[in-house]
Specification:
Layout (H helix, E strand, L loop, with lengths): L2 E7 L3 H8 L2 H10 L3 E10 L2 E11 L5 H7 L2 E12 L5 E11 L2 E14 L2 E12 L5 H27 L4
Antiparallel strand pairs: 1-7, 2-3, 3-4, 4-5, 5-6, 6-7
Helix pairs in contact: 2-4
């Protein structure tokens, strides 16, 4: 089952991108997730900003069958490299990874920021994969649920920043 997430914001795609690549926002999002920022890099190459965030994220909400294997925190690395999409918006590949007991947990896909009547729309599509024989499918479902939590918290932080509630 794919990951899908849509949200609208009362700002232009450029303003939304500026928020998503702002160091203060990335730290605020991490705090909203209860995660500790271990490393954060924001680089701007013209209209192609890049971010890399390494977090120690809590495993709260992980199904009990997996929680006993991962402990109370896991290191997660999220990389984004934004490019203009040619229609007034921006796009970035999703690249989120974690290692749990030598097994790779990965979320890949795409995020688009496009003009919308309300200002802009953020659309995320992707897949979760877990390199774990026998329990991989169950673990992937748990990862999809956690990604949903991440985007809901991000939405809350963005709405506070933009002063509106969707």
């Amino acid at each position: 089952m794919p990951i899908t997430q849509d949200a609208t914001y009362p700002v232009s795609p450029d303003a939304l991108l500026a928020a998503l690549t702002d160091e203060a926002f990335l730290r605020e999002r991490a705090a909203a997730l209860g995660a500790d920022v271990q490393e954060l890099t924001v680089r701007t190459d013209g209209d192609r900003p890049r971010t890399e965030v390494r977090l120690a994220a809590p495993t709260t909400g992980i199904p009990p069958v997996f929680a006993r294997f991962v402990g109370d925190r896991v290191t997660v690395v999220e990389r984004t490299a934004w490019t203009p999409d040619g229609t007034g918006g921006h796009r970035s590949d999703l690249d989120v990874q974690a290692e749990v007991f030598g097994r790779t947990v990965q979320v890949t896909g795409e995020r688009r920021l496009v003009p919308d009547a309300a200002g802009s729309r953020s659309t995320v599509t992707g897949e979760a994969t877990v390199d774990a024989p026998l329990i991989g499918r169950q673990a992937e479902a748990a990862v999809r649920e956690l990604i949903g939590v991440v985007f809901r918290r991000e939405d809350e932080v963005l709405n506070r920043r933009f002063g509106e509630r969707n």
